[in-house]
Amino acid sequence: MLPLDTAATFFLAAILLALAPGPDNIFVLTQAALRGKIAGLAVTLGLCTGLIVHTTAVAVGVAAIFRTSAVAFTVLKSLGACYLLYLAWKAFRAAATSIHPAKTSEISRARLYRRGIIMNITNPKVSIFFLAFLPQFADPARGPLTVQIIQLGGIFIVATILVFGGIALLAGAIGEWLNRSARIQQIMNRVAGGIFVGLALKLLTTQR
């Protein structure tokens, strides 16, 4: 069991890391601004579901493969970059009326949730980060490391939900105001597409 001071220190570190600009929180921000608060929260839950996968991978040691295998790392990051380019293509082609929050259906929310999962699990840097970061707060003297890693992963997910959820609510509120103009909607779509392209290029050029 994690001591309270260790859990609190890790939680604070997780909050700060979630606040640092990166592909995931930028993705939440753009989707919430384009599609509304609920869409941003759906993406947030998808990303955090992906974190469960990464936590499990670290707990059983699978993430070490991506740290040591150049082929596995390259394949996974290429898949992630291709998916981001696909999202960019969709954003560039989207009509203004298709991104209005009122048009967001249950199906599209489920799709956004899946996008969050895919984007998170196809980023090998997350697994490597977890592999490097989580064990620093685990201690064999406190019991099984696997259990401690899972606990730390859970704390990280809670911190991420709080930060990304706040980003989604704020960006969604701003987006609802901006989406009153079809012209602004189109500009926001182009900006989102450009961000996706930039994130894809960043992922492709990422080194282990």
How many domains would you count in the coordinates? 1
- The termini sit apart by 32 Å
Secondary structure tally: strands:
0
Count of runs of 4 or more consecutive helical residues: 9
Summarize the main sheet.
none
Q: Would you tell me the overall average pLDDT?
A: 78
- State Rg: 18 Å
The percent of residues in helical segments reads over 70%
Structural class computed from helices and strand pairing: mainly alpha
Strand percentage lies at under 5%
Low-confidence stretches: 97-106
Give the overall shape.
globular
Give the H and E element order: HHHHHHHHH
Model description:
It is a single chain. This protein has 208 residues and is mostly helical. It has one domain. It is built from nine helices and no strands. Helix 1 packs parallel to helix 8, helix 2 packs antiparallel against helix 3 and helix 3 runs parallel beside helix 6. About 5% of the residues have low confidence.
Q: Could you provide a short overview of the structure?
A:
This protein has helices at 4-19, 23-35, 37-60, 63-68, 70-93, 106-121, 124-133, 145-178, 182-204. The chain is an all-alpha fold and 208 residues long. The longest helix is centred in the C-terminal third of the chain and has 34 residues, at 145-178.
Label this structure with key terms.
single chain; mainly alpha
Walk me through the topology:
Layout: H1 4-19, H2 23-35, H3 37-60, H4 63-68, H5 70-93, H6 106-121, H7 124-133, H8 145-178, H9 182-204
